[in-house]
Amino acid sequence: MKNNLGVTIVELVVVIVILLIIATFAINSGIDTLDEADVTEVFVEMTSVKSALGSVAIKKEFDPNIQIAQGEYYDAAFSPLAGVTYGDNVLGNQEKWFVIYGIDNQEEYERSSVRSFLGLDTLNHTYIVNYDTSEVELLKPVTIKDLEVRTYEQVREIAEK
Q1: pTM of the model as a whole
Q2: Could you give the CA distance from residue 145 to residue 100 in angstroms, rounded to a whole number?
């Protein structure tokens, strides 16, 4: 009887250790999957905005009289946020950058008609865009896979890894 009790406790400890190892792998896999979903969501959304800018650029090419107007092509003129570092491409040509609101700016998002005009369904993030260069950047950086990203190139680089 004494031997059986000892074997049972050892077996129980081994089973618990094995279950902990399996749980650790499952949790790590789940975290990786959530990170990949975040990357995919931001990358696909930024790509959609970039495509919409491209279509406007094509329209401008065929009709140079098209004016980039607030309410149709953008929600507001770009103004840098305090504490956010923008590149020289943005700050050097600040007057050519415009804001398109996403759900993260709920009040402005609900009033905006720009998304429907550009053929975009839903935007979770607020973007700054340049119609001359078809550049798209996040107004505020987001953290993906423990990295703070703001530009399309940064998000694309993470998505391609």
Answers
A1: 0.79
A2: 25
